[in-house]
Amino acid sequence: MIVLGLDTATSATVVGVLGADGVVHEVRDDPPPGARPAHAARLLGAVDEALAAAGVGWDEVTRLAVGVGPGSFTGLRIGIATARALAQARGLEVVGVSTLEALARGADAERVLAVLDARRGEAFAAAFGPGAFAPVALAPEVLAERVRAMPVAPLAVGDGAVRFRGSLEAAGAQVPPDEDGVHRLRAEQVCKLGAEGRPTDRDALLPDYLREPDAVPRR
């Protein structure tokens, strides 16, 4: 199975191709701190680059995997709309992948807390392993209480773990150094989760926002 995977839930534009040899060829765009994400400008170009790096043509791609969040509202809309369009145009089956699960998989640890900075003073988080809990949007102090209640202290990864390092470490979590690559979402995990997952109807592919958008219609 050859899987094209993409994720735009975070500030990074992440694309990869899982080849028949099990190797994932990744192309990514990580904007510098403070810069706006370039999902709209970089995503399709990154897809072409990843396919070329893997030496794979569109007719060889079996499945499309896309991160469904939680994450940036704009980023998720761009990624999922692109995945739907590619699936329709190329006749590909599509699998939605949890961005938090993909992040946790990259840690390669038994007990992982995946945390993304949700802005507005909150974190998107999910725990895997002993004390696991499903994705939620929480204030950092509430997340710290969740960590204290876990039977075993987890390894916390992601940009949210970096941002809320103080409260997470005080609660017992282990947070790797800021520059550790474990905090970055990898295309390898998106592709592999996509290969393992069950395809869904492309029109049923929806983003996992977890909370209401920042901008709402005026009453």
Largest sheet: 5 strands, mixed
Name the average pLDDT. Answer: 95
Q: How many β-strand stretches?
A: 9
Helix content: 25-40%
Shape: globular
The main sheet orders its strands as 3-2-1-4-5
State the helix count: 7
- Give the low-pLDDT segments: 215-219
Radius of gyration: 17 Å
Strand content: 15-25%
Coarse structural class: alpha/beta
Alpha carbon gap, first and last residue = 49 Å
N-to-C SSE string, H for helix and E for strand: EEEHEHEHEEEHEHHH
Description:
There is one protein chain. The chain has 219 residues and is an alpha/beta fold. Helix content is 33%, strand content 23%. Strand 4, helix 2 and strand 5 form a beta-alpha-beta unit. Helix 1 packs across helix 2 and helix 3 crosses helix 7. The longest helix has 18 residues. It starts with a strand and ends in a 23-residue tail after the last helix.
How are the secondary structure elements laid out?
Layout: E1 3-7, E2 13-18, E3 24-29, H1 39-54, E4 63-67, H2 73-90, E5 93-97, H3 99-105, E6 112-119, E7 122-128, E8 133-138, H4 140-149, E9 155-157, H5 159-163, H6 165-170, H7 187-196
Parallel strand pairs: 1-4, 4-5, 6-9
Antiparallel strand pairs: 1-2, 2-3, 6-7, 7-8
Helix pairs in contact: 1-2, 3-7
